[in-house]
C-alpha cells in the first residue's frame, strides 16, 4: 500500500530493491525479499522508531522499520500537537531538530542548529517533518508487519518473523512500540500496572484517591439511584477501593487526542455505530447535579485547530476499559481501540445532540467539529489510540519517583526527562455512596533529570542486543513523567547510537562503555546533564551567582520553559527602577555569543531593552518577550575580557508588559 511517489531513494537491503518516497512510505511488492537483512531492525514506526532509524542511517548503517499498523509517527502525528515538553531546553539531538523543523515548516525558512523550535503543531505538519527525515535518511518502513515470532540464539535475537512470513534479520534490534511486543517475544522481563509505594520507596505510586479530574458534585453510582442491589452504572467498580499506595494491575486511561476546529468547514461529530445514550448515564447525572463543563480541552496548535484532551471527571478518557490491552494480541487490541473510538465519538455526539442536555452545552459542543483536512483516511478521526502505558521493562535500573524528584541520580545518563509525574485516572469507585475517580496524580519535578542507560536495556542474560526506549524500566509513577514523545525520541536516538557502537565493538549492549557512548551522544547534540555545559560555556541563572538586581523582582514558575528552578518578573511595575544584570565569570578573553532566555506569554513586554557590556563598549538590543519563549535567543557575538567585566543588563523603562529575567548564556564563538 505505497503512497504516490513524489521523490525516490533506491537502495538494496537483503536483495530487495526498496523505494522510499517523499511521503515516507515504502513501495515494495509483497514479499519482494523473503528475508531482509539490516544493521538495525526497529519495531514500531512511532516517533521513537523513526528517530532511531534516522540516527542509525546518519551513522552509516542500514536500518528498517517494521510497523504492525498503517500509521506513521505515533502520537506525534496522531493528534498530540501540544507537546508535553516540561523544560524544552532539555530536549536535544534529533528530538530538538524535529521541533526546529516544525518551526521551519511554518516559517518557510531553512532549518539550522540555531533555528527556533515550535512545540505546538497540526498533525499533518508533524507528518511532513517525519516524511522529510525518513526520505533524507533513506529509511524503508514496512507497514502491516505484525510479529509472529522472535528467534534467538542464546541471549541474542537473530530474526523477527511477521505473520505474513516476512523475515527480518540483524545484529541489533529496537522495540520502539508503545506496547513492548518485541520485548515480550524476546523473553525480557516486564510488569504491567502499579507498584506499591513500598516496592521502591515511593510515595505516590499504587492506588491514589486524590482530587485531580474528580467529581465536584455528588453523583449516585447505582442503576436505580439509592439501590445498591440494582448494580452499578457502566465503568464503575463495585469493589471497595484499596488504601492509597496499594499495588494493583490497573493502568491509566487511554483516549484519542482529537484535532478540532470551529471553522465553518468543520466536520460534525459522527454518531458511531452502536451508540446508546445509556452509556453516558453517569455524565447525564453529573450534569443534572449542576455540572456545566468543561468536558474536554481546546488547546490551540495553529491553523485554527486544537489538540483536545481529557478534562474533568467524565470526559474523553475511557476509564477502566483498557486493562486487557497491554497483554492482548493484535486483533483484540484493534477491538479495544474500536471500543475507545465508539465511546469517545459517542461522548461528543451526546454532548452536541442529546435533547435532554441544556442548550448551552449542546451549542458550545457543536460549535466544534473535526478538522476536515486532518486524518482524511480515517474519517478525520485520529488513527492512533493514546496508549499512555502498557508493558514496562524490569531491568538492572528501574527509574522511580526518586529519580524524578532528583533525590537519586543515574550515573549513566542517555537523556533527560522533565515533565510532571502524571497519571490519568485508573478506575471509578464508590466512596460513601457516591462515585469517585481514582488514580489521577499530577506532581511536578524540580527540573530535568537523567535517565539511566540501564533502564533502556534488558538484563544481559535475557537479551544482549535489544533496546527498549519506550517501554523502558520505570515504575508506574516515574513512567508518568518519562512517557512523553520528546523523551521517547531522545532515548531512541541514544539507543540507536549504542546499537551501532556495540556492533562495531562486537560487545553485548550491556558491556558498552558509557564514556564512549556519552562522548558520541554529546557530539550529536544530546543533553545528558542539567544544566548542560560545554567547553568554555558559561550560563548565569537567576538563582545563581553573578546576578544583581535593582528594584523588586518576583519569582514564578507559572509559564513553562524556564531555565533552572524558576524565573523572575518585574510585576509590570516600577518601570525604569527595576533592573537585573547577569554577570558571567568568563574563563578566557575572546569572542562569545551572548544569549538571553525568557518564558513567553501574551502579557509580556514586546520592547525590552537589553544592554550587552563588552570589551568594545555597550550594545543595546530590544527583544520581544511575547514570543521565542523557552529557548536561547542570540543577542549577537562580542569580544569579552576574561573574568567579570562583561554583563547583560535587562532594563524595564518604557516596556509595555511584564519583563522576564530567567538566564543568560555566553558561548565561545
Automatic annotation (TrEMBL):
Residues annotated as signal peptide: none
SUPFAM superfamilies per UniProt: FAD/NAD(P)-binding domain
Residue ranges occupied by any Golvesin/Xly CBD-like domain in the UniProt entry: 538-666
Keywords noted in UniProt: 4Fe-4S, Iron, Iron-sulfur, Metal-binding, Oxidoreductase
InterPro entries, per database record: CBD-like_Golvesin-Xly, FAD/NAD-bd_sf, HdrA-like, TAT_signal
Record flagged with keyword Iron-sulfur: yes
GO molecular function: 4 iron, 4 sulfur cluster binding; metal ion binding; oxidoreductase activity
Protein name: Golvesin/Xly CBD-like domain-containing protein
Organism: Allocatelliglobosispora scoriae
Amino acid at each position: 500500500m505505497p503512497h504516490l511517489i513524489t521523490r525516490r531513494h533506491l537502495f538494496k537491503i537483503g536483495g530487495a530493491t526498496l523505494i522510499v518516497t517523499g511521503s515516507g512510505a515504502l513501495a515494495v511488492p509483497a514479499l519482494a525479499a523473503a528475508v531482509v537483512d539490516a544493521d538495525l531492525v526497529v519495531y514500531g514506526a512511532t516517533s521513537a522508531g523513526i528517530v532511531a532509524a534516522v540516527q542509525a542511517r546518519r551513522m552509516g548503517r542500514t536500518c528498517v522499520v517494521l510497523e504492525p499498523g498503517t500509521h506513521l509517527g505515533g502520537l506525534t502525528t496522531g493528534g498530540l500537537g501540544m507537546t508535553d515538553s516540561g523544560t524544552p531546553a532539555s530536549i536535544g539531538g534529533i528530538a530538538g531538530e524535529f521541533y526546529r523543523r516544525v518551526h521551519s515548516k511554518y516559517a518557510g525558512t531553512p532549518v539550522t542548529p540555531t533555528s527556533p523550535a515550535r512545540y505546538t503543531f497540526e498533525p499533518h505538519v508533524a507528518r511532513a517533518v517525519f516524511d522529510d527525515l525518513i526520505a533524507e535518511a533513506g529509511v524503508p518502513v514496512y507497514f502491516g508487519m505484525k510479529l509472529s515470532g522472535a528467534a534467538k540464539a542464546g541471549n541474542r535475537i537473530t530474526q523477527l518473523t511477521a505473520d505474513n512470513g516476512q523475515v527480518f534479520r540483524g545484529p541489533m534490534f529496537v522495540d520502539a512500540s508503545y506496547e513492548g511486543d518485541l520485548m515480550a517475544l524476546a523473553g525480557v522481563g516486564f510488569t504491567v500496572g502499579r507498584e506499591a509505594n513500598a516496592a521502591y520507596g515511593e510515595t505516590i505510586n499504587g492506588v491514589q484517591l486524590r482530587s485531580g479530574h474528580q467529581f465536584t458534585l455528588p453523583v449516585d453510582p447505582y442503576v436505580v439511584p439509592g439501590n445498591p442491589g440494582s448494580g452499578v452504572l457502566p465503568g464503575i467498580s463495585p469493589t471497595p477501593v484499596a488504601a492509597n499506595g496499594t499495588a494493583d494491575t490497573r493502568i491509566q486511561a487511554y483516549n484519542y487526542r482529537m484535532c478540532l476546529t470551529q471553522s465553518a468547514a468543520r466536520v460534525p461529530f459522527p454518531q458511531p455505530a452502536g451508540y446508546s445514550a445509556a452509556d453516558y448515564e453517569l455524565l447525564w447525572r453529573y450534569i443534572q447535579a449542576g455540572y456545566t463543563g468543561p468536558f474536554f480541552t481546546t488547546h490551540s496548535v495553529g491553523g485554527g485547530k486544537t489538540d483536545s484532551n481529557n478534562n474533568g471527571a467524565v470526559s474523553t478518557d475511557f476509564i477502566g476499559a483498557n486493562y486487557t490491552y497491554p497483554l492482548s494480541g493484535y486483533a483484540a487490541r484493534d477491538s479495544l481501540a474500536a471500543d475507545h473510538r465508539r465511546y469517545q465519538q459517542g461522548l461528543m455526539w451526546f454532548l452536541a445532540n442529546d435533547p435532554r442536555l441544556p442548550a448551552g452545552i449542546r451549542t458550545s459542543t457543536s460549535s466544534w467539529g473535526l478538522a476536515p483536512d486532518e486524518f482524511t483516511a480515517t474519517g478525520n478521526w485520529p488513527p492512533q489510540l493514546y496508549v499512555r502505558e502498557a508493558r514496562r521493562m524490569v531491568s538492572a535500573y528501574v527509574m522511580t519517583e526518586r529519580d524524578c524528584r532528583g533525590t537519586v541520580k543515574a550515573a549513566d545518563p542517555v537523556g533527560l526527562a522533565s515533565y510532571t509525574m502524571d497519571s490519568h485516572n485508573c478506575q471509578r469507585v464508590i466512596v460513601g455512596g457516591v462515585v469517585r475517580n481514582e488514580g489521577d496524580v499530577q506532581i511536578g519535578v524540580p527540573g530535568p533529570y537523567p535517565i539511566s542507560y540501564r533502564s533502556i536495556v534488558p538484563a544481559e542474560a535475557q537479551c544482549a542486543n535489544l533496546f527498549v526506549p519506550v517501554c523502558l524500566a520505570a515504575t508506574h509513577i516515574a513512567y508518568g513523567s518519562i512517557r512523553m514523545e520528546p523523551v521517547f525520541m531522545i532515548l531512541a536516538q541514544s539507543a540507536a547510537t549504542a546499537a551501532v557502537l556495540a556492533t562495531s565493538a562486537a560487545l553485548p549492549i550491556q558491556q558498552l562503555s558509557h564514556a564512549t557512548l556519552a562522548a558520541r551522544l554529546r557530539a550529536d547534540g544530546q543533553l545528558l546533564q542539567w544544566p548542560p555545559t560545554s567547553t568554555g560555556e558559561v550560563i548565569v541563572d537567576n538563582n545563581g551567582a553573578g546576578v544583581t538586581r535593582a528594584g523588586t523582582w518576583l519569582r514564578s514558575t507559572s509559564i513553562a520553559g524556564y531555565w533552572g528552578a524558576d524565573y523572575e518578573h518585574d510585576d509590570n511595575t516600577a518601570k525604569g527602577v527595576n533592573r537585573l544584570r547577569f554577570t558571567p565569570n568568563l574563563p578566557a578573553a575572546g569572542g562569545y555569543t551572548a544569549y538571553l532566555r525568557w518564558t513567553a506569554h501574551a502579557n509580556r513586554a514586546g520592547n525590552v531593552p537589553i544592554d550587552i557590556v563588552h570589551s568594545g563598549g555597550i550594545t543595546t538590543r530590544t527583544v520581544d518577550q511575547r514570543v521565542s519563549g523557552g529557548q536561547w535567543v542570540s543577542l549577537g557575538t562580542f569580544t569579552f575580557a576574561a573574568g567579570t567585566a562583561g554583563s547583560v543588563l535587562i532594563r524595564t523603562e518604557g516596556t509595555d508588559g511584564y519583563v522576564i529575567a530567567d538566564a543568560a548564556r555566553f558561548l565561545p564563538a
